[in-house]
């Protein structure tokens, strides 16, 4: 498999593995140095963020792309306890960089790993908005949790409210959730690199060409 930005004579090997106790994909470019974890959002799955994994691999890192608890092939229910266990497992796995979207971004913040790239993430440990909008955008129907949004609320509370200093890259969608747009303003004040991706929404950002290219460029520029 060849990822955008990777020389055509350098393939990326894709493996199915168990990482940090979760089903995952491992994307290994030739000559990789270090492994980054790529975390999907609430209502998503590892397959949805393979493009972000390829973006990381295009920058020369191995990318590990797991399912979060309650999502995809991860059999645990999403609760505060399950996200705490998973976060601890990921912390102990030796990753040298992190990428996270939505809930995965909140988890990436809690890992204390840099370089760090976040997509459509609120700086506060909550998602605000009308219930109808949250149901449509956040896709609770796809999550195994005690009741809709209950696992999300527990997970966000368990992850806390970490705000590291720069360098951090925050990408947000032009039509993002209000809480994520507010986060972008605060992130600029905190000295983070902030990029608005036009013409898309909260979920679309994970596959937007501009966002994928920005992730690769960010990791290529890391010292």
TrEMBL record:
InterPro entries in the cross-refs: AB_hydrolase_1 (IPR000073), AB_hydrolase_fold (IPR029058)
Domain AB hydrolase-1: residue ranges: 37-142
Coiled-coil ranges per UniProt: none
Source taxon at top rank: Bacteria
Protein name in UniProt: AB hydrolase-1 domain-containing protein
UniProt source species: Desulforudis audaxviator (strain MP104C)
């Amino acid at each position: 498999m060849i990822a955008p930005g990777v020389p055509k004579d350098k393939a990326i090997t894709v493996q199915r593995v168990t990482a940090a106790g979760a089903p995952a994909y491992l994307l290994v470019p030739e000559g990789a140095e270090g492994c980054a974890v790529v975390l999907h959002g609430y209502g998503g799955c590892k397959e949805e963020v393979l493009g972000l994994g390829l973006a990381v691999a295009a920058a020369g890192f191995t990318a590990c792309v797991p399912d979060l608890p309650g999502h995809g092939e991860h059999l645990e229910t999403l609760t505060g306890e399950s996200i705490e266990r998973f976060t601890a497992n990921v912390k102990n796995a030796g990753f040298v960089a992190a990428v996270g979207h939505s809930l995965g971004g909140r988890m990436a913040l809690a890992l204390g790993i840099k370089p760090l790239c976040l997509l459509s993430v609120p700086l506060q440990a909550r998602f605000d908005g009308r219930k109808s909008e949250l149901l449509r955008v956040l896709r609770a129907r796809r999550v195994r949790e005690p009741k809709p949004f209950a696992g999300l609320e527990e997970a966000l509370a368990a992850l806390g409210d970490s705000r590291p200093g720069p360098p951090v890259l925050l990408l947000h969608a032009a039509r993002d959730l209000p809480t994520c747009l507010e986060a972008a303003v605060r992130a600029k004040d905190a000295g983070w690199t902030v990029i608005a991706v036009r013409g898309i929404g909260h979920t679309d950002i994970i596959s937007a060409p501009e966002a994928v290219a920005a992730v690769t460029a960010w990791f290529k520029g890391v010292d």
